[in-house]
């Protein structure tokens, strides 16, 4: 990891690195639709891209918010951290869908609450099996 720091006042972290990722929410008031996204950078950079593209609506109709900061898992690989971020994004998309909101994400979440429960139960079963083997 480079030891130098960015000279840009809004980027206080080393160049080539990024801060903890975020899950963000865009709400289009005119169309009453929601979009949930992820970014590995500060969210306003990603929001700027959405505004420039115009695909999510006019800036006057958009409400931007951060849903959560996703903590990077220390000791996990970059691929595992990215998968974790995608899983968290999926969880938030599902939450909005389950609450009855119109969500316009093109990618449908692959992880559900049931999936997380199943993974948790598998971990508990493995732990119990390991303790029996000892």
Which fold does the CATH topology of the domain at 22-108 refer to? GIY-YIG endonuclease
Count the DSSP helices: 3
Q: Give the CATH class of the domain at 22-108.
A: Alpha Beta
Bulk shape: elongated
Give start-end ranges of low-pLDDT stretches: 1-17
Class by SSE composition = alpha+beta
Using only C-alpha atoms, the radius of gyration works out to 18 Å
Q: What kind of sheet is the major sheet?
A: 3 strands, antiparallel
Give the strand order, joined by hyphens, for the main sheet. Answer: 2-1-3
Spell out the helices and strands N to C.
EEHEHH
Total beta strands: 3
Summarize the structure.
By secondary structure, the protein is an alpha+beta fold. It is built from three helices and three strands.
Q: Your description of this structure?
A:
Strands 2-1-3 form a 3-stranded antiparallel beta sheet. It is built from 3 helices and 3 strands, in the order ββαβαα. Helices cover 40% and strands 16% of the residues. By secondary structure, it is α+β, with helices and mostly antiparallel strands. The longest helix is centred in the middle third of the chain and has 21 residues, at 78-98. Strand 1 (22-28) and strand 2 (33-39) form a beta hairpin. It has a domain at 22-108: GIY-YIG endonuclease (3-Layer(aba) Sandwich), CATH 3.40.1440. The protein has helices at 43-53, 78-98, 113-133, and strands at residues 22-28, 33-39, 62-69. The radius of gyration is 18 Å and the shape is elongated.
């Amino acid at each position: 990891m480079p030891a130098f720091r960015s000279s840009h006042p809004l980027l206080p972290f080393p160049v080539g690195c990024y801060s903890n990722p975020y899950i963000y929410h865009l709400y289009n008031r005119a169309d009453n639709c929601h979009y949930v996204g992820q970014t590995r950078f500060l969210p306003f950079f990603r929001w700027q891209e959405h505004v420039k593209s115009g695909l999510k609506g006019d800036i006057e109709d958009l409400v931007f918010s951060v849903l959560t900061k996703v903590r990077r898992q220390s000791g996990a690989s970059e691929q595992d951290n990215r998968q974790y971020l995608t899983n968290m994004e999926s969880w938030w998309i599902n939450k909005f869908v389950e609450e009855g909101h119109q969500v316009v994400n093109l990618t449908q979440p692959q992880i559900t609450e049931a999936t997380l429960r199943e993974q948790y139960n598998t971990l508990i079963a493995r732990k119990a099996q390991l303790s029996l083997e000892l």
